[in-house]
Structure to design on (621 residues):
């Protein structure tokens, strides 16, 4: 009986020892969270947080979907940060856009210590996305996250515990005087001034 | 066969509870992928299965670890594992070409960091193999490098190849022994090789098992290993004398009892070793036969050898090297590009080299894991050292022909046959 208990306890201990350690939880967000788009385009950062300051875990790769309303916006482009290495030498990137969805992915080719050195902060921007506001768009719309997969430097998934999108207020464009109009007004003012000169 | 000194159900209960608690990931841990940087004693990659799966909770299992990795020019890979004093460790590097092209070297370092054993070509072809009994307990290291790197620093070698490192540990006394009744003397009565470190779960990437057994004159041992088609089986025998005193022979048979491969002296000394045998599609298991020279029929009739051996069996991934998507036996950026481009797709099967974590999906997690197996920094492409006549010197014979032709033309009489007066 005693021997059985030893075996059982040993198995329990082994099971606990080999049970996977809880993965680090991170959060994703779009910054700024509230965007007032009064022009024809705007940019927003894809930010990761919760990595802890300095050292592991670091981000080794990510594959993130950002959804938008194609009735108001069109995707303008994306640029990636330097936290996963220089592009194209040290990282692979991909940007795929379809109606209402942008898929951003980056995979670093650097070693874990190199990534730790490149990512000293708890929070940083993975990429910057640009969107175009469709003509005569008014009201509000949102940018939200679709499926998201974040890898640490060793290829292990980091749990995304929150993914906060952004609200976009589409304000009517304030009409700006054209350059020609400004020039013409200035010219008229000068002409009038010289006509009134008694000399 | 189980160790007759222990009630079988105790071990099975322990295994069952252990596996139940650990979950499906435990079996997969038996095969691990290289994680760079591991280029020094200080940064040696830890081989957890060796230290954990040989604990007292798994008394019937012999165990070890199988690492899939690649080595680039100037690279050296270190791995760490725990040994107790008196335990027996074997280490071997295997390649798909069975050492025909690649020339790896292998070294073992004791807990003080001292190099205690090294080898170049004791395995099949140019492959190395080592066996050593630990004189001291603690964390040992094994290093893999290329021929020319005597100091195991990575310098001095120009080898680049993909490899599998097979490390086995036999406890003292051996945790799995052949049954005293020795009833495994024919194909039909073959004993199952113990599962070891989750080695033979056909869904797992692979693993290692080691069993200790004996051969007496007229004796032959048959062992059976379940396999899935395409998986790579490595089998090696080790003994106390390093192959100097005994002369075993080894055979691999299919389900239909057909001899697939034989070996006599492929390992250290007179020991046999078969580095890489691909499981045929028609077999759900492979049977290993161990006998003594010159028993060509493996019926035990014609030999009078006596020896005790460790049979180390490693079952590797199906498609050579995991992550080697383009099959060039080296993991570099071209492979990572292919994995990255395929993200979001379903894996083509259990052996898909792009699906490292075996979850059926190709993701950036697989891509990132594979970057750690690259043989060069930033996954730069393999640079193959030019061999003798691959440069401009290859044109030297043409130069010789040109000069000879010119001399002949100069020496030949004029076309009209006129003599030229001095």
């Amino acid at each position: 009986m005693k021997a059985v208990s030893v075996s059982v306890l040993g198995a329990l201990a082994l099971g606990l020892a080999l049970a996977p350690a809880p993965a680090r939880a991170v959060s994703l967000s779009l910054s700024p969270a509230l965007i007032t788009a009064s022009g024809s385009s705007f940019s927003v950062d894809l930010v990761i947080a919760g990595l802890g300051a300095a050292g592991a875990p670091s981000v080794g790769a990510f594959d993130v979907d950002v959804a938008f309303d194609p009735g108001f916006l069109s995707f303008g482009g994306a640029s990636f940060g330097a936290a996963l290495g220089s592009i194209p030498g040290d990282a692979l990137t991909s940007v795929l856009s379809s109606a209402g969805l942008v898929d951003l992915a980056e995979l670093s080719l650097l070693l874990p210590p190199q990534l730790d050195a490149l990512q000293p902060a708890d929070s940083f921007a993975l990429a910057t996305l640009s969107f175009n506001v469709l003509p005569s768009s008014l009201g509000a719309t949102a940018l939200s996250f679709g499926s998201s997969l974040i890898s640490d430097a060793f290829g292990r998934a980091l749990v995304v515990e929150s993914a906060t999108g952004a609200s976009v207020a589409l304000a009517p464009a304030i009409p700006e005087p054209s350059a020609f109009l400004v020039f013409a007004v200035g010219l008229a003012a000068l002409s009038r001034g010289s006509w009134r000169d008694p000399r | 066969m189980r160790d007759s000194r222990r009630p079988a159900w105790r071990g099975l209960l322990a295994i069952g509870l252990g596996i139940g608690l650990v979950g499906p990931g435990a079996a997969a841990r038996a095969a691990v992928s290289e994680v760079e940087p591991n280029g020094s004693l200080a940064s040696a990659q830890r081989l957890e299965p060796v230290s954990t799966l040989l604990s007292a909770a798994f008394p019937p299992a012999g165990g070890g670890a199988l690492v899939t990795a690649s080595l680039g020019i100037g690279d050296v890979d270190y791995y760490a594992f725990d040994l107790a004093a008196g335990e027996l460790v074997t280490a071997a590097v295997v390649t798909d070409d069975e050492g025909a092209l690649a020339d790896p070297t292998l070294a073992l370092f004791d807990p003080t960091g001292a190099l205690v054993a090294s080898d170049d070509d004791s395995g099949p072809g140019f492959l190395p193999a080592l066996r050593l009994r630990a004189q001291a307990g603690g964390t040992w290291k094994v290093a893999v490098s290329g021929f020319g790197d005597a100091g195991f620093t990575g310098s001095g070698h120009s080898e680049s190849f993909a490899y599998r490192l097979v490390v086995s540990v036999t406890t003292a006394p051996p945790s799995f022994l052949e049954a005293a009744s020795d009833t495994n003397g024919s194909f039909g009565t073959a004993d199952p090789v113990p599962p070891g470190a989750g080695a033979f779960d056909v869904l797992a990437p692979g693993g290692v098992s080691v069993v200790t057994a004996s051969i007496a004159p007229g004796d032959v041992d048959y062992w059976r290993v379940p396999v899935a088609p395409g998986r790579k089986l490595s089998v090696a025998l080790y003994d106390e004398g390093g192959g100097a005193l005994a002369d075993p022979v080894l055979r691999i048979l299919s389900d239909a009892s057909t001899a697939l491969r034989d070996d006599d002296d492929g390992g250290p000394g007179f020991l046999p070793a078969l580095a890489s045998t691909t499981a045929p599609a028609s077999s759900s298991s492979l049977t290993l036969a161990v006998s003594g020279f010159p028993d060509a029929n493996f019926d035990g009739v014609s030999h009078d050898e006596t020896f005790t051996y460790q049979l180390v069996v490693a079952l590797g991934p199906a498609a050579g090297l995991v992550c080697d998507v383009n099959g060039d036996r080296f993991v570099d950026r071209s492979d990572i590009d292919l994995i990255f481009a395929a993200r979001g797709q379903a894996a083509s099967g259990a052996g898909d080299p792009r699906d490292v974590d075996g979850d059926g999906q190709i993701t950036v997690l697989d891509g990132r894991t594979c970057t750690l197996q690259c043989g060069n920094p930033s996954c730069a492409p393999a640079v193959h050292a030019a061999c003798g006549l691959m440069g401009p010197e290859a044109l030297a014979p043409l130069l010789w022909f040109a000069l000879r032709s010119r001399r002949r033309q100069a020496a030949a009489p004029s076309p009209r046959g006129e003599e030229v007066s001095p």
Notes: The CA atoms of residues 318 and 351 of chain B lie 5 Å apart. The domain at 8-316 of chain B is CATH 2.60.120.380 (Jelly Rolls).
